[in-house]
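Lab intake sheet, docking and co-folding queue.

SAMPLE TYPE: protein with bound small molecule
LIGAND NAME: adenosine-5'-triphosphate
LIGAND FORMAT: SMILES
REQUESTED OUTPUT: full 3D complex as structure tokens
PRIORITY: normal
SUBMITTED BY: R.K., bench team

The fields below were copied directly from the construct record.
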Amino acid sequence: MPSYLLFIATIGGIYGLLALSLNLIWGGAGMVNLGLAGFFAVGAYASGLLTTAGQVPIVAGWMAALVAGGFAGLIVTLSTTRLRQDYLAIVTLGFAEVVRLVAANEIWLTRGTDGISGIPGPWKSALGQNFNSVYFLIVVAALVVVFLVVRRIDRSPYGRALRAIREDAQVAQVAGKPVLRFKTEAFTLSAAIAGLAGALYGHFTSYIAPDLFLPLITVYIFLAVASGGTGRPAGALLGAYLVMTLLESSRFFVEWIPGTTAVQRAALKELLIAVALILVLRLKPSGVLPERIPPAPRPATGASS
Amino acid sequence: MPLLEIRNLRRAFYGLDVLRGVDLAVEPGGITGLIGPNGAGKTTLFNVVSGLVPPDAGSIRFDGQDIAGWAPDAVSRRGLVRTFQVARGFPKLSVFQHLMLYGRDQPGESLWQAIVGTRAARDREAELAEQAWATARFLRLDHLIDNPATALSGGQKKLLEIGRALMAAPRLVLLDEPTAGVNPTLQNEIGERLLELPRRGITVLLIEHDMGFIARLCDPVIVMAEGQVLTEGTFDAVRADHRVREAYLGRRAA
Ligand SMILES: Nc1ncnc2c1ncn2[C@@H]1O[C@H](COP(=O)(O)OP(=O)(O)OP(=O)(O)O)[C@@H](O)[C@H]1O
Ligand SMILES: [Mg+2]
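RESULT FIELD (auto-filled):
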């Protein structure tokens, strides 16, 4: 595979992880996380710092990113439990900004806007040219594992309870479901996945800085999940690659338009993406792969008359 | 000992006293009727007992424990499940999913067990699926089992309310006008089935405006008016009570 495509496929996979993370809580439980980029950054910084300044093995860094992301998620949900549901969106938005500001200003720890460079990649020197291929496979492996986990949840009684909470949390309580426990667990797991995605990103590009974790990433992932299909893991994943493809192909497309400056081309690119996504949602309002109602298992006895 | 015992229960909204010291007791193993004119506070009483609305004062003893002020999910898991007068539910979930959701003790509702997919979770799911089918057949909803709740008619939504409450195998079920909007034939059948519940260990407290239905099913009948219990007794005794007639005709207007 040409190295450019490989690069896109790897970043697309990382976006895929973020989309699965968002779909778990947004599609699954109706919780809005506008600070996805913040959890992504927490994971990237946790692993980036531990493996450079901290000298721990890369795999330990990834585990730490999972834990750090999940812990941040836990704190954010617990701090909003007494507030109405829409406040979670506001708090998460604020959280992501705080993470970015801390990363930019706590220079002793994060080296500020200079960012952290030289984040090690697994077997990077030994692999040489093949590093990108191997890393792509690592991302695919992470994607497969996370996909299987969230799909299991999606199809389990747990996922059913989450959906009920999404539709009407009060009636879900009447059904006996401890709404707070479900929401806290799901959000924590979702944030952990975003943290892992952040770590995978940092070790791939070997460089992270506050500017790489702008709210625009969160917007892209929302677009990915909405266009791919909210409430269905396969849809979220498809949406991530759809958005990635749009982002990259629009870049080539605008190059062909004569007589435009670089700034105009960048704006045109955003415009193209917006138009494409509006088209997708016009034609398929619930996404390309919409949520499905699983059919009830038919009774084996056949006593239906 | 009564299964449910309410003492001096009070609740006001915006300065309007809706429950003005309700005292009542429901004995285990029967079907108790709760009647009263519109606005008497019957639904509000259900809201407070089921934990959706906290009481201002008073006690609610259920099965030996004071549950006043408990969260709705804790009340529900304790074995007290209610239905809604205006059917509520989960628009995008199917009839089957509604029924399954109300099942008790589901190992698959632990995050860990959901991910690894334990045997216990699968077995319980299969067990509940059988019950869900039986419940759907009983309520004539089996041909709609994969339909989302939005695709049900008003009466069918009420039937689903009853069905899912029964799936929880509660000790006490509070039914708020369970057959309002259900056709008479099916209403009769539901009445018949409700009569079986006490034998299955389920005590029923039901609100209804259809006096024929109350007469056939309920003993005793509790009458509420203006946020208090007016009287209690057999249907015939209650019907003969002139205070009950006055309450229905509107005492203040007269
Ligand atoms: N959340 C609330 N906020 C304000 N007022 C309320 C609220 N809930 C109930 N009320 C008021 O309490 C009174 C009693 O209402 P409730 O629904 O309990 O009556 P009901 O006996 O169930 O009547 P119906 O037979 O018509 O269903 C009404 O006047 C209603 O407006
Ligand atoms: Mg009412």
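REVIEWER NOTE: The first helix of chain B runs from residue 42 to 49.
SIGN-OFF: pending second check by T.M.
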